[in-house]
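Support reply, case 0932

Customer input (verbatim):
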Amino acid sequence: MVVCGDDGLAHRLAAELRGVYGEQVTLVVPAAERTVRPPVVGRARAASAALLDRVVNAAAGRTGGSEPVGGERLVEAAEATEAVLADAGVERAAALALVYDDDETNIRAALTARRLNPRLRLVLRLYNRRLGQHIEELLDQAATLAAGDDSGGGFDASTTVLSDADTAAPALVASAVAGTSKVVQTDGLLLRAVERVPGQGGGAGLATLALLSGTGNGVGGGGGSGVAGEQGPELLPDAVAVRDAVGRGTVVLEQVSYAGPSLPAGRGGVVPPFASLFSRRLRWSLAGLVGCVAALAVALSVVTGEHPLFATYETLLDLFAINDPALGAPIGRQILQLLAGLVGLLLLPVLLAAVLEALGTFRSASALRKPPRGLGGHVVLLGLGKIGTRVLTRLRELDIPVVCVEAGAEARGLATARRLRVPVVLGDVTQEGVLEAAKIHRAHALLAVTSSDTTNLEAALYARSVRPDLRVVLRLYDDDFATAVYRTLRAAHPRASTRSRSVSHLAAPAFAGAMMGRQILGAIPVERRVLLFAALEVGGHPQLEGRTVGEAFRAGAWRVLALDTAPSGAGSGSSEPAVEGAYEEAAVASGLVWDLPDTYVLKAADRVVLAATRRGLAELLGRRGERERAGA
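Our regenerated output:
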């Protein structure tokens, strides 16, 4: 794997590929003496320090170089030119990630790399989504044409274009809703791995992924050394192993969902609900006038003995002052006519107010909404920039109530909030009363994703002073600063959930998964091992095709979790399994059928979501021989 970049995302991505997927990585970054490198994480930090020492002691005429550092090969270059890519070994690489902060730099390097190696898997970081789609199609077409003259099949020469905002948004949403950023996204669903202690309830989840060791670190553990005599984690166990695992914790797969109250927001249409056309006071005024008219009609019918319908008709004529004066009529009739005229005078300002309120409601139907009075259990989202807009869209897709806070009236996310009819508070979050207007004292979580680290931190500290148990998720640029903030907030509020992450930290897993192939959905660490999640077409995989779900399951290697029922081919015929039980609603909404019966036969046109170990997935994809040849 080759990673080219000029900021913290490149180092994060290299660490993810080495630590999670066990890949050999060549990292191409600007020379340390020319570029102030952002904070580096994990093993890459120590490697960069060692590299800096070498650079300082190097000869002054040196302009670039290659050093094997910390288990990875590091190439110094200001830009990914053809010579630099050749030196990095792009001709022999399986995948290349271009994560420079400049779109043009990434596109130029991608075109050069595709020419050097048409079978190379490319992952690009682009902010322009529309341009990214065209570049993706162009590079894929070039790879297809080059592969037509190449007999070496089995290579995934796909091109994937990602942006920080799109890849970080699911993890930010999961942190706010479920308190974890270790999630896997598939077909609109967010899935997480949950550790279950022996004797603890909570249900079986969607699937049992692993059995924990007696002293394991659990999901997302940091790779401890273990204890002699203890049984290590067992990935993808069969039913017998789960049943016989007495006293061992389990890791189950669950869907990230929101169980709080829903937001009483409109559906975003042009015509608002009838109840919102008029205020409560105006509706009561109209009801009172209607009652007066009814009472006058009944009184006129009693006094004159006329039919109630005719009495109502005459009352309305008196109300609008178009009836003849009741000269020579009984005194009761004359009094009722005067009262009807008085009610008519009172009706005029009420009708005018109704017309003005209705016009104002239609004019403000496309304006920003204010937080409802009784709102509670919602998520307060600070910042509607590039990241905040993606997070807002994801939250509303999960039907989670949101109140946004934005300082600038021209922010790009205000149009999205207006379209989704999400309440917005305009104002500086550091000013007193802004968070209170967003109902922070009744909120479920605070998501601070503005572009200013100090603003996010100040908002989090103030929110914690109002609600010490509030779940707080911060977006911070500096990794070291994010770690320090996380530890301090956890120490000050041990019972509250705190997450402090940089965008590069959250985006790196998605970029790493794309480098492994388009079929990779993500990875979840389980103690010292890793489970990969992938979406595969059954056709072309003899371990799956023509077998039942039970026969296709291989303990410790892979397990089919769900069947994609989206209308994409012939795999959605009458032989599909019925969607039953507690997963019916989720399956219909996402196109996935969970809890497949073991007797269901997998067809070539089926697309399945499965969990696998590294070795198991390599065997399924036929990469074991390829990787052995690469290692040789």
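We compared this against your earlier run and they match. Two observations from our side: The longest strand covers residues 529-537. The mean pLDDT is 78. Please reopen the case if you see a mismatch on your end.
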